[in-house]
Amino acid sequence: MKDKCQVIIIGAGMAGSSAAVHLYENGITDILLLEARDRVGGRMHSIPYKGKILDLGAQWITGVSPNNSVYNLATKLGIVKGDPRESEDETANDQKYYPLSSRGTPISTKAHKIAKSIFEKFIYNIDNYYLRKDRNGGSIKDFFDQSVPSCVEEIVDENLPTLKKEVYNILNGMLNVLRSYVGGEPDECSVDLFGTSIELPGGEMPVEGGVGQIVQSLVSFLPKDVVYLDSPVTKIDWSNPQNISVNIHDHEIKCNYVISTIPLGVLKSTHTTLFHPSLGEEKTLSIQRFNAGAVCKLFVEWDQPWWTPNFGGFLLSRGEEDYIGDWTDYVGDFNGVKNYSTLLLTWVVGKYSSIIDGIDEEEIIDGLMKLIWKYTGDPSIERASRIIRHKWTLDPYTLGGYSFPGLNSNPEDMNILASSLPSEEEPSLLFAGDAACPDYWSYMHGARTSGLIAAEKIVGISKN
Fold this sequence. Notes:
The chain is α/β, with parallel strands linked by helices. Helices cover 33% and strands 20% of the residues. It is built from twelve helices and 21 strands. It has helices at 14-25, 69-76, 109-128, 140-153, 160-182, 212-219, 264-274, 281-289, 353-358, 361-376, 413-418, 444-463, and strands at residues 4-10, 31-34, 46-49, 52-55, 60-62, 96-100, 204-206, 227-228, 235-237, 244-248, 251-260, 275-276, 290-291, 295-301, 311-316, 333-337, 340-349, 386-388, 404-405, 421-422, 427-431. Helix 4 (140-153) runs antiparallel to helix 5. InterPro entries: Amino_oxidase, FAD/NAD-bd_sf, Flavin_monoamine_oxidase.
């Protein structure tokens, strides 16, 4: 590895890889792309499993439209071909998704339909809450508690008490599923700012062969002496912004610019020791206020499927009596997995994610099977045989999931997280990543967009 270069990019995920290739394609070739792991991709982590591919992290291109820089890239690379609507599984509309009660009995179609309508209205309202003039702060959970019960009370039906209870229990289950949409606890996410990340049209599209191949294909455009794996950065000394020093263990590299795509969870944990001098009060406060998320994605495997081929999934409806005070309270649903007949997918998102990541597979299976036996009413279902996962909250190069605004965040935090130091006019230390994109924070295309913006700042300076 060289001792001096023009630009160092830290992190070979979507943001860092996009920045590196953009620099290289624009004539700035004296660069190094440093990745702490033994692979590129960051949270885009696709693994081979039984002849196919599983995405242990990100798994969709979200917002399939020309405004999506990742969709455009995947199309350019030949990874996505043709009309994206034709890429969707034609059987998806035939798959069944059921709410189940803890009594092991089905829930009425009427209750499900009403609950779904109320929840869709709730999602629309939190997506657009930032536009309201009467917004008064608080969390998504606060808004749920303020708005949803009144909708349930408006139900008119001859079987009113039973129907209302079913609807409310389904809505509690849907709130659990919402955690994976938020990336963490609904009571820790600002309802004022949640909708400020623009949701592109076009829906979600899985990538055949895994999303990880997008970054792998992108990085293949760079020479081998540019990309270095197993290279964790231990210190960034930018006390002289024209001659920044970056340390990888005992090896020091001098450069003119650094683009940091270090995940927010890692920044929260290491920024005080990693950067010299400090990042300053303004950026430090934004790092503290924004939430790094906590997501535990679990693929559960059986030797033989006990569900039908057209199974889409089932939701765990929750009454007050169903909460037992452990991590299983946070399991929202189980879903079928495309191309895998023996796998179901579930999530634990929020404060229990790090607990799940810290316990062994058998204990997780114990908890999940108790739920499945209880909610299906069928104790004869065979015990699952395996859990497939990546421990994102314990991964030292992630320490979290996808970011979202905390309760104390303000509208400027995303701009501050994306801002360069010592100034935008004379940038030397630049930042990118899913938390550093004001328009598309938390999204994969937000990470790519932020990387392109950071790289373009350097390209612009080099042309002047």
